[in-house]
Amino acid sequence: LYEKRPFTILSIINEIIKSIICKYIIVYSIILLSVPINSYTQVNKSTNYQIDNIIIKGNTTYSTRKLKSNLSLNKNGLLGNTNFTRRLIEMDRIALKTHYVKNGFLNCSVLDSFSISENMKVDVFFFIDEGNQFFLKDIEISGNTSILDKKLYGEINHKFDKPFNPLKIRKGLRNIKESYSNIGKPLVRISDSIAVNNNNVSLYLDIMEYPTMKINHILIKNNSKIKDIILQREIDIKPGEVYSGLKLNKSKKYLINTGLFSTVNINSANIDTSNGLIDLIVYVRERDMHYWEMNTGIVQKEGLGTEINTNYNIAAQWKHRNLWKRASSLGVNSEIDINAMNISSRPDINAEINYIEPWLLGFRSATLFKVFMNNLIQQQNEFTKIGSEISLIMNPDKRNYFKTGIEFSEIVNKYENVDTSITRELEKEKERAIIFNYRKDRRNDFLFPSKGYLFSLSGKIVGSVLGGTENYYQIESSYSKYQIIFGQVVLAYRTKIGFLTPYGSDENTPEYEKYYLGGATSLRGWENRKFIVKNSVEIRKNIKILTSFELRFPIYWRFGGEFFIDGGNLVDDLQSLYNEVYRWNYGFGITLTTPLGPARIDFAKPFNITHANKKWIPQFAISYAF
């Protein structure tokens, strides 16, 4: 960069790319000339060579440890060596270059080399020339009349007097174009340039807005199995409306969420700037409309008392996605589950037939009609439920879900009664219930969350004007929060509360709805469903409260660790909740990253308790406890 010479952000990035390519060719040619052909052939056999040392030279602004955190190559670890490939070295060289460029070192250069020892170990070297660091002094914007400067500064999101980050600027320009697209100006053009004075950078943006565009026609292509009207109702923008990139993105999401298409693209065509008109062409690729499949694996499912169990699962499903070409679906599902902590027990059996009508009275909400059968065996309980359900489901995206409806069921529950001398009792009930379920998911990752939160609220009102043999209501709420402490260390905590109470003529709640604690997803210092064992049998109560704090951190390769504290209690009424001692356990765990989520084994032990169970309890599960 030279004094007061104008540059564009794109030209800077292009120069960086050219620099990377040229230096890569030079270094690669030197390597080819210096390494014998047979040796180079062996180097490409990554299984024969491992990284021994990574040496970084020339860095003064950032510590070697800080820079190594950007690398995918690692020095020898506890479980073996990292395989050496030339591609990994090049990727890490670019990662170092990118780290410096993002922090204002626009002229930084990074070279790499390696040496091979007689014992087939590889030392990797990175040579850094940092150059000067540049800072953003100011931003001047011209040509904008529809959006204020303040909003455009917010879209760029780059603070003044901070290291100049061309990658953040490029992202900010994309955000500006998106903002214009959302107000009907998809043709906006932005010219950018910079001027450099000493180490200060001034950014200049010249915006050409072009006319506001309206939708003229919407054309649908490649749909042979689905009627046009089905697609049109999912498109959130209509002819005659002002163009909106936000509405187009929502339309693509709605079309994908129908489950009828594998890909959806919406393109502009026939642009008429004189009249401010633009056509949209919707291209879809249809999926198979009916299919059947079988799956097997390890899953976590809700059992009696709403506690989560880790099960070996075998599932079969048949589904037709597009009955009568109206996007209505019919499905038949069956599942067999074997408790992973008690594989000798009889499997649980679940089956259902469901019909889903995707729209109701012109609203984007699904109507579910379902008949089902659940037969669960847990400890000394055998629970069988047969029934039907009619529900309204609003699921605008995967992060927001709401369902409410009416359920009719007949229940047979055989259980061991710990409060009487009778070892087995039988409940036969008819339930008529209003049910609801709400979930809001703001986690950044469903399997490995490190930021955000998850909130859920569910419950049901049984009996009253609906009839049946039971009268009670139940509500359960859970809140989990995740945040990064430093690096890849994550603090996670949650609170879970369940409340169950009879009303009307009933004095007791049914045994099959009462809460349990203990196990891999609740109080890990107690065995599954055996929190505060009485006569060697688990207890069930009407009120549950559960809290957990967990510190998650990486160890090596795919392995991670946990330190956690869990607290909770089970009582029958609110007064007892104040009087009873709140129980705590502490422990640690090891996790292994798998495609299904973290497989973990935890070891937990209760705090200061006179209970006979003072030993460390192992708990195995797939995915985190919360």
Task: Give structural notes.
- The chain is an alpha+beta fold and 626 residues long.
- The chain contains 9 helices and 25 strands.
- The chain has a 16-stranded antiparallel β-sheet with strand order 10-11-12-13-14-15-16-17-18-19-20-21-22-23-24-25. Strands 1-3-2 form a 3-stranded mixed β-sheet.
- A hairpin with a 2-residue loop joins strand 14 and strand 15.
- Helix 1 packs across helix 6.
Alpha-carbon Rg, integer: 31 Å
> Helical percent range?
10-25%
How many strand segments? Answer: 25
Strand content: over 45%
Q: What value does the average pLDDT take?
A: 87
Please identify the structural class as seen in this structure: alpha+beta
Strand arrangement in the largest pleated sheet: 10-11-12-13-14-15-16-17-18-19-20-21-22-23-24-25
Biggest pleated-sheet summary: 16 strands, antiparallel
Shape: globular
Q: What is the count of DSSP helices, taking H or I runs of 4+ residues?
A: 9
How many angstroms separate the termini?
Answer: 51 Å
Which residues sit in consecutive blocks of at least 5 with pLDDT less than 50? 1-5, 23-47, 76-80
